[in-house]
């Protein structure tokens, strides 16, 4: 049985490595709920399979966690090199419900199991119930034979990025939102981040991407490329509501130093679109009481920042023919040592996230 530790990762000498550090594998969840994914999730399943295949082709073991109802279908659709395991969940966002792995640099690997409330619980959360989601991290850790820290705060993996050298990047819109941890002050949240991620300095951005249903996850607006270097979701269009948000983020980033005292180098990734849910797409989504409704015309929080750093590869979303090539060229220049592979992920975006949100790396211990 997985050991649950009472201390914190930092107290035990563990920290979260950066995403570019080598991975032993990657976990994903299989989409099926019809209020998140249109047409019974069939188009989304094809895209999840393409993302898993792209990651595996770069030399990374991928495990797809699937409900009992969908096991045979997923096993039939996915290539044989993808491991398929039966595991219950409420939706398919492994970044947010899976464990955040921490290592000690001496061969030890454990996981942080954050509390989960479906992105806001009864105050704007996306669905209810979320009990299966909240249990995913513990079950993944059991399968990985990794020890567990149950963190005393609500947090999703997509709301944090680390550089592996003491810095954590996040947004005020999400982490200070009263629908996550209303009793915790900014200082207390910072202390918990350091205790559970092994970091020393928090870099705070303000709001996240426009109409992001996660309350502004960092993984949809800004990420570390390597220590001291970040990529930022950007539009020059001053009439678009994203412009002022991205300018605010840039202003903050340019005034910051990281945990090692470095100024940050900021690279802009163009905003696709603006993109919106079409009539046809909305018609394919089931309305379910207690879950977020998705209506034609709703703005989609599309962002190229929502990519995954796999072993040897960058797996990036393709979202808009007008901007895909420009975004890809920027990522090619930023990651000369990795192959940049684009996967069309409009269907993943319709569910409210993208490639980073549906993946969770297992760092090499
Ligand atoms: O940003 C993420 N890490 C996840 C997006 C979740 C969307 C829920 N519908």
Put the structure in a nutshell:
The chain contains 11 helices and 18 strands. With 365 residues, it is an alpha/beta fold.
Account of the protein in words:
By secondary structure, the chain is of the alpha/beta class. The radius of gyration is 19 Å and the shape is globular. The strands form 6 sheets. It has a 4-stranded mixed beta sheet. Strands 4-5-6 form a 3-stranded mixed beta sheet, sandwiched between helices. A 3-stranded mixed beta sheet has the order 7-8-9, with helices on both faces. The protein is 25% helix and 24% strand. The site of 6-aminohexanamide has 15 residues, from helix 3.
List keywords for this structure.
alpha/beta, 3-stranded mixed sheet, binds 6-aminohexanamide
What is the C-alpha radius of gyration, as a whole number of Å?
19 Å
Q: Would you identify the regions where 5 or more consecutive residues have pLDDT less than 50?
A: none
Distance between the termini: 20 Å
**Overall form:** globular
Q: How many H/I helices?
A: 11
Give the number of DSSP strands: 18
Helix percent reads 10-25%
Largest sheet: 4 strands, mixed
**Which kinds of small molecule does this entry bind, naming each only once?**
6-aminohexanamide
Q: Percent of residues in beta strands?
A: 15-25%
Give the class from helix and strand content and strand pairing.
Answer: alpha/beta
What order do the SSEs take from the amino end to the carboxyl end, as H and E?
Answer: EHEHEHEEHHEEEHHEEEHEEHEEEHEHE
Strand order of the largest sheet: 3-2-1-18
Please tell me the overall pLDDT.
97
